[in-house]
Design brief:
heterodimer; A: mainly alpha; 14 helices; globular; B: 304 residues; mainly alpha; MetI-like fold
Chain lengths: 280, 304
């Protein structure tokens, strides 16, 4: 014990910090490079910029004519916000029925719900696309939003069922004696006590919708409807080594909402992962 | 009618209210999941381009897949990607978790830092960064030149492009690590103390206590990562600019499905691919579950 133990711990710290810096270095490099003049990004070694400029941000913001990243951010925020609200309302409703109410065929529906959690989305993709196409919804936000209104993110139903089950039943029972019906119990007792689960749901719905590239590439075609990931994809078409500064600048901006949420709600994220196996 | 309703309510029968709560999900389940599932199974036996009604062609889509060399490439690329990146990711996650789980100070901060790649890694932004890092002028080549390794365009070379994506996947081991850490915390401290009294060293404790008791968590992570990694899309799309190239070396299964279904509008073909994906994933998961009884240690004897 004593000295050698201390040294051992010290070594572990140094190793962990070293690996951590190594892993985050690319992201840090991107952050610093986004403030460097284009010509210095690849010629100047090291992180610290000798010359600081916002030119990349201006150039990136105006990636295409007639519109800016401002519009893409607006679109992304709108879609994400509506998805968060939809998931909160409909997933919690379904979860309440599963966790607290008795009704015929409950076991069957619950099994169906669990099954859909692991189901690859590709197997419903073509018919869904065809439905949305016949409704005239291609190149609108609706295909991205409407599924959430119908609680298709079964994962969050499961998460909330687990949480609701942990809320003491005595509370429901005394409320029933006081004359409350199920709707009132859901509104006045379950939801207020389930705030942590609601926060976890909001965070992950937001982050996943914000980052979701596949459905956005599938359903949104015109620049006016583009979201942030699709805006970033525009750089692929107009590349050459000359525009990396702008790519980095807009990439950094695109990561800001996720990063901000992470630093505010860290506790909920770590707890969400550990209790349910959520992945980032 | 009115009487019956009143009697039901008196008996506390709220079935219809329960169904009211369940209604959005039920509509979604039938209209957006189960219905489309059945429909895509049907479409997989047809030729369908969205504009004309589907035409029954029997097994021809599936036969076509067997002869499609791009499909074979996609399967091979995806399996290579999955079979390398899932184990490396889990091993990295486990090693770092074991290292962090020694009562270190600042555990919270380390956990946060290591989790950041998992948080950001799935985005288009990081995929673009990766394309740059492993490009001809990227900092990876700067780094390698320190060791005298000759630089090249890693993302544009057919032998190496897939490995840059594997590195990107491995880089995101933080989420699994957080789950491992939680699992390690569950192991009662007394077990280690008892083992130490019996003279078991650190390594033996790891082999006899930590690893066996962690096998349920390892199993859980393995299943989740397998399902998730098989469906990866963004990194290959961005790094290869939607082509899956160079020469199909990064053609992920989902990217090829996307190309056939939504660039060429061969939606019957895409549906057949989707069903093969589900069957393949189902089979792999089933195999994992079958083997689990031989290596996963459950406290309650593993009875379901």
């Amino acid at each position: 014990m004593g000295m050698s133990m201390k040294w051992q711990k010290m070594l572990v710290h140094i190793f962990i910090i070293g690996v951590g810096i190594f892993m985050l270095y690319p992201v840090l490099w991107m952050v610093f490079s986004s403030f460097k003049p284009e010509r210095l990004i690849f010629s100047e070694p090291g992180l610290w910029p000798r010359e600081v400029t916002l030119e990349n941000y201006f150039k990136g913001w105006h990636v295409v004519r007639d519109t800016t990243f401002g519009l893409f951010f607006k679109n992304s925020f709108m879609i994400s916000a509506v998805c968060v609200i939809a998931n909160l309302v409909t997933c919690s409703m379904a979860a309440y029925a599963f966790a607290r109410m008795k009704f015929p065929l409950k076991k069957l529906w619950f099994a169906c719900m669990l099954m859909t959690i692991m189901l690859p989305a590709h197997v419903t993709l073509v018919p869904q696309y065809s439905i949305f196409h016949s409704l005239g919804w291609i190149d609108t936000k609706l295909p991205l939003i409407v599924p959430k209104i119908f609680a298709t993110d079964a994962f969050f139903i499961f998460l909330m069922v687990q949480f609701f089950r942990g809320i003491p039943r005595d509370l429901d029972e005394s409320a029933t004696i006081d004359g409350c019906g199920p709707i009132k119990i859901y509104m006045k007792i379950i939801l207020p006590l389930a705030v942590p689960a609601l926060i976890t749901t909001s965070i992950f719905t937001f982050i996943w919708t914000w980052d979701d590239f596949f459905s956005q590439v599938l359903y949104l075609n015109t620049v006016q409807n583009f979201t942030v990931p699709l805006g970033l994809r525009l750089f692929l078409d107009s590349q050459g080594d000359s525009s990396w500064g702008a790519v980095f600048a807009m990439s950094i901006l695109s990561l800001m909402p996720t990063a901000t949420i992470f630093f505010i709600f860290q506790k909920y994220i770590v707890e969400g992962i550990t209790t349910t196996g959520l992945k980032g | 009618m009115q009487m019956a309703k009143r009697r039901n309510r008196a008996a506390g029968n709220h079935a219809w209210i329960a169904y009211l709560f369940l209604l959005p999900w039920l509509i979604g389940f039938f209209g957006l999941v189960l219905g489309p599932m059945i429909s895509s199974l049907y479409l997989s036996f047809t030729q369908y381009n969205l504009l004309q009604p589907p035409q029954w062609t029997g097994w021809s889509n599936y036969e076509g897949l067997l002869q499609d060399s791009n499909f074979r490439d996609a399967v091979q690329v995806t399996l290579t990607y999955v079979f390398i990146s899932v184990p490396t990711q889990l091993i990295a996650a486990l090693l770092v978790a074991l290292l962090l789980n020694r009562g270190l100070r600042g555990l919270g901060i380390y956990r946060t830092v290591y989790y950041i790649p998992s948080l950001l890694g799935g985005s288009v932004a990081i995929a673009l960064l990766w394309k740059n890092l492993f490009g001809m002028n990227g900092i990876v080549n700067d780094f390698l030149s320190f060791f005298g390794v000759e630089g090249r365009g890693w993302v544009t070379h057919p032998d190496y492009a897939l490995y840059t994506l594997i590195i990107l996947a491995t880089w995101q081991f933080g989420a699994s690590m957080v789950i491992f850490l939680a699992g390690l915390k569950q192991i009662p401290q007394e077990l280690y103390e008892a083992a130490a009294v019996d003279g078991a060293g650190k390594f033996r404790q790891l082999r006899m206590i930590s690893l066996p008791l962690l096998t349920p968590v390892i199993f859980f992570n393995l299943v989740i990562e397998l399902i998730k990694t098989m469906q990866s899309f963004t990194s290959s799309y961005i790094v290869s600019e939607g082509t899956g190239g160079p020469i199909n070396s990064t053609l992920f299964y989902t990217l090829y499905l996307y190309q056939r279904g939504f660039s060429y509008f061969e939606m019957g073909y895409a549906s057949a691919m989707a069903w093969l994906l589900v069957l393949g994933l189902g089979a792999m998961t089933a195999v994992l579950f079958l083997t689990s009884r031989y290596w996963v240690h459950y406290e309650d004897g593993g009875k379901l």
